[in-house]
Amino acid sequence: MRHRLDPVFNPRSIAVIGASRNPKKLGAQITHKLITYGFQGTLYPVNRKAKNVHSIRAYPSVLEIPDDVDLAIVVVPSEHVMSTMEECAEKGIRGAVVITAGFKEIGGEGTNREEELLRFVRKHEIATIGPNCMGIINTSPGVMMDSTFAPTYPLHGRTAFMSQSGALGVAVLDHARKINIGFSKFVSMGNKMDISGNDLLEYWGRDPETDVILMYIESFGNPRNFVRIAREVTPRKPVIALKSGRTEAGKRAAASHTGSLAGLDEATDALFEQCGVLRVGSIEELFDLATAFSMQPTPKGRQVGIVTNAGGPAIMATDALVSVGLDVPTLGRKTQEKLRAALMDEATTTNPVDMTAHGDPKGYEAALRAVLNDSRVDSALVIFVPPAMVDELAVANSILKVAKRHKKKTILSCFLGSTEESPGFIALTTNGVPAYLFPESAAKALTSMYAYGQYLQRDKGTVKEFKVDRKSVARIFDECKQDDRCRLNEVEVLQVLEAYGFSLAKYGVAKDLEEAKKLAAEIEYPVALKAMSPQIVHKSDFGGIALDIEDERDLARRLKKITRRIKRSGFSISGYLIQEFITDGKEVILGMKNDPKFGPLIMFGLGGIYVEILKDVAFRLTPLTDAEADRMIKSIRGYPLLTGVRGEKASDVNIIVDHLQRISQLVNDFYRIEELDINPMMVFGKKKGAKIVDARMTIGERVRPK
Q1: Structural contact between residues 439 and 384, judged by C-beta atoms closer than 8 angstroms
Q2: E-state strands within 266-335
Q3: Bridge partners of 217?
Q4: How far apart are CA 488 and CA 481, in angstroms?
Q5: 54: alpha, beta or left, given left = phi > 0 and alpha = psi -120 to 50?
Q6: How far is CA 122 from CA 95, 117, 353, 676, in A?
Q7: Helix, strand, coil distribution of the chain in percent, nearest 5
Q8: What's CA 236's distance to the chain center, in Å?
Q9: Closest of 670, 676, 680 to residue 703, by C-alpha
Q10: Tell me: the pLDDT tens digits for 468-510?
């Protein structure tokens, strides 16, 4: 066996340690499943008292088994797991699935027990799934291993699924069988003590029997490794993930269930977007996408043809498709002529093609063939609402007949008003055409397929290396540490940004009014005045900012006013920042937050004082390529404002791309930066650049994770 996980997924022999004669016990159920599903290797029940289990000779210990054993399924009480694994190591077993609970998920002694077990299996190189899991499956005809206690037997297919929830795994297996989705591999991860989701993703990425990978994730172990592995896998196979813990309440629930805190949701979105993983929001959507990807090719473009016998569902489908960026184009003249010749006079032949309630199997065949032959169409959505006088199964067979001749174009169907057990639905899903109960579900699946196709084609970009002054930044950070400060003052932040080549508004620092007058004259009016105080983060909240100061007299008046206001609030003033006042440009915000698990998260959005209310921002992980920075900018809702609307000039998006990459380099060079806010940065017209007006930064003692 060449890979570390081969003994787990392709065992030639399995020992069920804790096999039982009592049908109510897990050891009996798992042994029964392995036998009845047809395991192709040799099975060894291990029971310290029984001489045989399920009419198979049993052994009191794995050490008594005369032959080699590849995989151990451990179903003994938690206090005996460690001694059992010691015997497995002595036997030379290289794979284990620990079903037993009572480890990290219960805390306290359970956590200590799991840590000891992990040290042991790592030392003896035993690849281990679990503990606290429901088992694994490999449906390959040469293996036929179902070591779970789920009541449903899986169908054979080319989709691999991993779940951190055993209960969810049971439900998934049951539902998948109902809608004719087969699995190549299935894993209940449990506490994922040793083998992680990253390990499975890497292994399945190279598995010739797996085409689609599904993941239910409650928490990430090493998000950066996930990105690295997923970037290698997604160009070859679609990866579809359901990540729980979107809300604070959900995070708490995930923590109590798995013993580890769920990751920041914005970071999860950024992570998935950058590495091409398709994120879904529900189990239903997970299945919808799995059905589509496992049965149909990825659409080459955004143009969708709709064939229907009812106008309402077609309108619903059109709205759903167009709202997410797909197109329902008018069909070509020749196509419409063919449709008019084949269909009744009442039919609409533009797109959607609505045959009305008179649409019969023959009409569906003619209409779908004509639509797929149109060069304007990349994929087709076939909607059928069963009227009493039309045979549903005959319609399904007509669709399948056309699908066999158009294997390069994507075909999805919606049998509205049917059930997953109806004859037409079963015929379609059994023969490679995904069927859905509602048009919106089909539209979402088609949208995700198109998005994946776009990901495969998009430019990955390059990470630019800028010439910077690292020594100056290190000196500033060291001075802050000596002063026992985590927050840099305004000038220090600007100096850090200067050292990394950011474009800043001209500035200077004055101790009093006289120095302020000299600086303002050098910078040239109009200027902005900001009171500097170590106790104030948001100066505007305390009236510490004066903008558009026109002359020396105005400067003196407003400086005195700000000084009185700040001191009246009980704060001290360490100086006054004088800046050139920027009179035009679009306000944007650039920032970074160093997440404990994900590392530096770069942020971009439209800036100003309302950014926290509008929350129109995008996040990405570092390092950031130029292409990723460009997509990040274009992903926010307010992006059209940067392209120029209502006669306004377009903004210099290239300078934003440049500065996002400079932030990426800065925070990767200095991992101790905890937070950075550049707000606002005023962006001017095309090729006119930008100027940073205000910025804040905090640092800590964080070290770069391995």
Answers
A1: no
A2: 278-280, 304-308
A3: 243
A4: 10
A5: left
A6: 11, 9, 61, 39
A7: 40, 20, 40
A8: 17
A9: 670
A10: 999 999 999 999 999 888 989 889 999 999 999 999 999 999 9
Q: List the one residue out of 221, 175, 218 whose CA is nearest residue 202.
A: 221
Asked whether 288 and 439 are in contact (CB, 8 A), the reply is no
pTM for the whole thing?
0.87
Burial of 225 (0-12, 13-18, 19+ CB in 10 A): middle
Is 509 in contact with 492 (CB distance < 8 Å)? no
Is the preceding omega at residue 439 within 30 degrees of 0, hence cis? no
Angstrom distance (rounded) from CA 605 to CA 611: 8
d(C-alpha 298, C-alpha 425), whole Å? 22
Give the domains, in start order, of the chain with CATH numbers: 1-133 (3.40.50.720), 150-282 (3.40.50.261), 296-457 (3.40.50.261), 460-505+583-706 (3.30.470.20), 507-581 (3.30.1490.20)
- Residue 84 pLDDT: 97
Amino acid at 154: P
List all residues 6 or more positions away from 664 whose beta carbon is below 8 Å from its beta carbon.
Answer: 463, 600, 602, 622, 623, 624
Angle at the Cα of 158 from the Cα atoms of 279 and 283, rounded to 5 degrees: 35
3-state secondary structure 614-668: HCCEEEEECCCCHHHHHHHHHCCCCCHHHHCCCCCCCECHHHHHHHHHHHHHHHH
**At 180, is the secondary structure helix, strand, or coil?**
coil
Binned average pLDDT, 10 residues per bin, the chain of 706 residues: 91 97 94 96 95 93 96 96 97 97 93 96 97 96 95 93 86 87 94 95 96 91 89 96 66 38 65 93 92 95 95 92 92 95 92 93 96 96 87 95 95 91 93 94 94 92 95 95 90 96 94 93 93 74 84 93 86 90 91 87 82 79 94 92 84 96 96 92 94 92 65
Report residue 293 as tokens. 């990807």
Residue 464 token pair? 């630019």
Integer CA distances (angstroms), 213 to 129, 164, 247, 412, 620, in order: 18, 14, 25, 20, 23
> What is the rounded CA–CA span in Å between residue 624 and residue 672?
18
Predicted pLDDT at 583: 84
